[in-house]
Amino acid sequence: MLNWFKGNNHSKYREILLNAFPRTLKKNVESVLDILPFEVNEVKLCDGKIHKVENLIHLDFQTVILEDEHLSIPNRLYFNEPELEKEQKLTNIQKAILNCIYLRHHNGFVRQRRLEKINCNEYWITPFTFKLLGEYVLEILEVLDGQIDNNKLENYKRFAIENPKYYQQTESRMISYWNEYYRRKFPKLKLYVGKIILDQIKTKTIGEKQDEIIEVGIDKNERLFIRPKRESFLLIYRTATEVHWDEKELILYSPKPREWNYYNWYRHIIDVVHKECNTKLILTHRTIWTNIDNDLKKQIIEMKKATA
Length: 308
Prior knowledge:
This protein has twelve helices and ten strands. The protein has helices at about 1-20, 25-35, 85-90, 90-100, 110-115, 125-130, 140-145, 150-160, 165-180, 195-205, 260-275, 295-305, and strands at about 40-45, 50, 60-65, 70-75, 210-220, 225-230, 245, 250-255, 280, 290. The longest helix is centred in the middle third of the chain and has 19 residues, at about 165-180.
C-alpha cells in the first residue's frame, strides 16, 4: 500500500510539472522528469538541517498565459537535484527545461546557480525568469540584469502584454521587497535593480531594439559620446550624419561642436540610432555622467521625460 501512495505522489508531481510547460515540449519535459529524485523526501531546508518533506511541490502556483496557452508554475518545490551523470545526458533543450524547474527551488543558491546556466532566449523560458523579478534575493536580480539583452526584453514585453495583471502583481511584490529589505542600501526606489529592469520592460516596444545607456560624457577631444550597454553600431558612419562608432571604446560619438551645442548633438545621436538602426537608447537612473555639467544633464533628463 505504501508503494502505491509513493507512486501516486510521483504521478501527481509529473502532472504538475508538465502543466508548467507548453504542450509542444511534453516529450522533452517527460525525459527531464524521468531523472528527478521524486522518491527522496529527505531534504535540507533553510535551517541547514535534513527534514522529511511529505509534499515536494508546494500546492500554490501561478497561472500565466503563454501564446494563448494557460500554464501553471509552482511557487516552490523541495526535491533534491538529480545526479550529475544523468543530467549530463540530457539534450540542450532538456537541460534548459531542468534549469527552469529548479528556478522554483526553495533554496535561493540553487535558483541562482540554475539561472546562471540558462543561456538561451526561448519564449517558454520567460515565465520562469520573470517570476524571479518578484522575489527578494538581490543576487538573483543582479544575474537577471546581467543577462538582459534586446531578445529577453522582447520576450518580457510580450509576456507582460499577455499577462498584465500578473505584471502589476510582480511590480508590487518587487516594491514591497525593496521596502522591507533593501531600502537602506537603495534609499531611492529608482536605483534598485528590480525597478530598473521593470522600467526597461515598460519602455520596450515590440519589434524595436532597445538598449540601456550606461554612460554619457564629453571626451578629451571635446566630443560628446554615448556608451550603450550591449549594442554596437559599426556601420553607422554610412548614414552620413556625422555620428560615428568607436569600436575600441564602444561608444557612439559626435564631432567637436561647431554650430550645434552638446544637447543638440545628444538629441541627434539618439534620433539617428532610432531612425537608422531601429534602436531606442534609454537613460536609466544608473547612467554615468562624465564631464557633463548640471545644466546639460538636466536638459537631457528633461528630454527623456518629455519623450517617455
